[in-house]
């Protein structure tokens, strides 16, 4: 890939990973229309390391405080246990369906665009619902609630659904406010994305060339810089304005992609490696 494509994809990953708009969906559609081919679709997964580091960077103080409190604070231990419990459903299904996800779902741009539109409608509906809020702090989510949010995260195995979108919508429907739903989604992203990174690297390391590794490094650095900006400002934004903007964005992008593919007669995800 030319360097400008690597940087573009890194920016898209970093700017969209923690927004409920589907970073993977945006990456795959961008690659489809630019005819970008990546071996094993590993670039899209591995540059998520930058987003993981962004969370660790922005929340380093809170994460350190939680870690130090675990030996003597039941609340800290419950929070860590809840995040790990929420991670388990996606870990199980992701490992089981990895090949199907990468070779079929990742290669179906019409499905991805459709999921963007459908997810946008769902986000708009949920954002306007008058929900009964029982939890205002992600640290206080009980393990049972966390596990249910983790089950909701599994819908994001379908590219275009959005990992953060699925977890945020699930959390809100289960009684959390918008801010705590988004914050829990941040923390759940760490084991989920780290697990996806490690598993994909294990599965595809043999087919990655030196050039691929270089592109991945540049991509994750770009993603890190962009993701830091999003993580720092997203919680304050959703607390004031909700998720309507992201719902409309999904509908516009997904609809535009569907129209473009139909007009071009090009709905296949296959590409030719040059």
UniProtKB/TrEMBL annotation:
Predominant location category: membrane
Enzyme class: hydrolase
Any Pfam family the entry gives: BacA
Molecular function GO terms recorded: undecaprenyl-diphosphatase activity
Sequence intervals crossing the membrane: 45-67, 79-98, 104-126, 181-201, 213-231, 243-264
Topology with respect to the bilayer: Multi-pass membrane protein
Keyword Translocase: no
Keywords: Antibiotic resistance, Cell membrane, Cell shape, Cell wall biogenesis/degradation, Hydrolase, Membrane, Peptidoglycan synthesis, Transmembrane, Transmembrane helix
Annotated Gene Ontology cellular component terms: plasma membrane
Miscellaneous note of the record: Bacitracin is thought to be involved in the inhibition of peptidoglycan synthesis by sequestering undecaprenyl diphosphate, thereby reducing the pool of lipid carrier available.
Family affiliation: Belongs to the UppP family.
HAMAP family xrefs: Undec_diphosphatase
Name the UniProt record assigns to this protein: Undecaprenyl-diphosphatase
């Amino acid at each position: 890939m030319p360097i400008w494509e690597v940087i573009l994809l890194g920016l898209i990953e970093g700017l969209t990973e923690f927004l409920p708009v589907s970073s993977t969906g945006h990456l795959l559609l961008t690659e489809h229309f630019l005819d970008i081919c990546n071996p094993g679709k590993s670039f899209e997964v591995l540059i998520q390391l930058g987003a993981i580091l962004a969370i660790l960077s922005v929340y380093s103080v809170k994460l350190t405080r939680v870690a130090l409190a675990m030996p003597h604070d039941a609340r800290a231990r419950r929070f860590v246990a809840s995040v790990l419990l929420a991670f388990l459903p996606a870990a199980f299904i992701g490992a089981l369906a990895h090949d199907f996800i990468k070779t079929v779902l990742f290669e179906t741009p019409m499905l991805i665009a459709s999921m963007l539109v459908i997810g946008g409608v769902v986000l708009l509906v949920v954002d306007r619902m008058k929900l009964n809020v029982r939890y205002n702090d992600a640290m206080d989510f009980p393990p049972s609630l966390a596990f249910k949010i983790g089950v909701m995260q599994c819908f994001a195995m379908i590219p275009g659904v959005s990992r953060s979108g699925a977890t945020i919508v699930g959390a809100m429907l289960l009684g959390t406010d918008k801010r705590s739903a988004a914050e829990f989604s941040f923390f759940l992203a760490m084991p989920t994305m780290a697990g996806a990174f490690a598993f994909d690297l294990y599965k595809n390391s043999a087919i990655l060339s030196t050039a691929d590794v270089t592109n991945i490094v540049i991509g994750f650095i770009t993603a890190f810089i962009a993701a830091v900006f999003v993580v720092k400002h997203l919680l304050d934004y959703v607390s004031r304005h909700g998720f309507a903007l992201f719902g409309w964005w999904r509908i516009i992008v997904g609809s535009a992609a569907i129209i473009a593919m139909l007009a071009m007669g090009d709905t296949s995800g296959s590409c030719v490696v040059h």
